[in-house]
Amino acid sequence: MPELPEVEVVRRGLQQWVSGRTIANVDVRHPRAVRRHEAGADDFVRRLAGHRFRCASRRGKYLWLPLAGEDTAVVAHLGMSGQLVLLPSDAPDGPHLRVRMTFDDGGRELRFVDQRTFGGLALAELVPDEAAGHLPAPVRHIARDPLDPAFDDDEFVGRVRARESALKRILLDQTVASGIGNIYADEALWRTRLHGSRVGRTLTRPQVRDLLASVREVMGEALEQGGTSFDSLYVNVNGESGYFERSLHAYGREGEPCDRCGTPIRRVAFMNRSSYFCPRCQRGARGKPSARR
DNA sequence: CATAGATCCTGTATGC
DNA sequence: TGCATACAGGATCTAT
After folding, report:
1. What φ, ψ does residue A113 adopt, rounded to 5°?
2. CA A43, CA A65: separation in Å to the nearest integer?
3. Chain C bases having any atom below 7 Å from a protein CB
4. Which nucleotide is nearest to A4 (CA to C1')?
5. Cα separations (Å) of A91 from A85, A86, A232?
6. Which member of A45, A121, A137, A206 has the greatest number of CB atoms within 10 A?
7. A87 in Cβ contact with A163 (< 8 Å)
8. Catalytic-residue membership of A61
9. Nucleotides in chain B with any atom closer than 7 Å to protein CB
10. Could you tell me if A60 and A4 are in contact, meaning their C-beta atoms sit under 8 angstroms apart?
11. pLDDT per residue over A8-20, tens digit each?
């Protein structure tokens, strides 16, 4: 469940159902799922057994579970198709089960399920971070996400306007602001009436501020509805899907009328993926800036 | 240095 | 029916 709202839904589930529990056994069913754990799958398994999870944290699309009494955390990234689900031990494995963790209380076990194996788990060091307290080493390279209270709006505006590349590319760059993916980038651009091919450098400060407000708005609304799900690939820790798909205005709506002006939504290939936009509301780099008055 | 493109993987949907 | 192709919500490595 890749973007911020979906990952936050998972974090909340982990916070409720996994924090405070002590790991009994870890079973790595596919080595690729722990490829980011440099010391290998055996080391990953050995170092987790007997340790207790303190809580569940998140920045952008990264999740981590700090271990009690240690300066380490299990870092998880769901990639394109990863799921963290809680299931009874006797539930069938399913074809994409990658890692299984049991707990000493005998309750539901935690499973990492990932069809495409772009996601993964690793045990990483928690290192001091001047602003955030502690952060896992693999998370330090990304920026704060827009829902982080300490997110620096001015810095974001400055960085967007310093870029020579397309606005959508900037939104997807996790080192500028983390947590935004293909869906919410398109949705925020639609809400702000900006075209993703606009060059960052050409935007006014108020335009970038509006865009940031739209990002927060759409992510907040999605979170309230449990995230966006098109199919069973994107579920919370209890295997349930969110409802935000119903509220999408642009993403996945090629040919359908724009909810503002009725013009059919267009889809174009961009950065090896799809971008959806309203060709009337969101004027492109070739046309006049839409917010000009 | 900033930026653009290729690549990792498995499954589903679509067209011939 | 079989087969080929396009596409899927992401991040990272490589080349320019």
Report:
1. -115, 130
2. 17
3. 7-12
4. C9
5. 11, 10, 17
6. A121
7. no
8. yes
9. 2-11
10. yes
11. 999 999 999 999 9
Distance, Å, A248 CA → B13 C1': 22
Query: What is the token pair recorded at A5?
Result: 């709202």
Please state the rounded mean pLDDT for residues A232-256: 93
The reply to whether A165 has its C-beta less than 7 Å from any atom of strand C is: no
Q: What is the pLDDT of residues A95-137, one digit of tens each?
A: 999 999 999 999 999 999 999 999 999 999 999 987 778 999 9
Percent of chain A at pLDDT exceeding 90: 89
pLDDT, tens only, A130-149: 777 899 999 999 999 999 99
Contact A129, A137 (CB under 8 A): no
Q: What angle do CA A147, A167, A252 make, to 5 degrees?
A: 80
pTM of the entire structure?
0.96
Nucleotide nearest to A165 (CA to C1'): B3
Residue nearest to nucleotide C7 (CA to C1'): A273
CA of A66 to C1' of C4 (A): 47
User: What token pair was written down for A200?
Assistant: 């960052």
Give me Rg for the CA atoms of chain A. Answer: 20
Given this model, what pLDDT does residue A287 score? Answer: 40
Using the structure, give the distance in angstroms from the CA atom of A268 to the C1' atom of B13, rounded to a whole number.
19
A80 CB less than 7 Å from any atom of strand C: yes
Locus of tokens 């994107």? A234
Catalytic residue flag (residue A224): no
CA pair distance A74, A70, nearest whole angstrom: 11
Whether A89 contacts A109, CB under 8 Å: yes
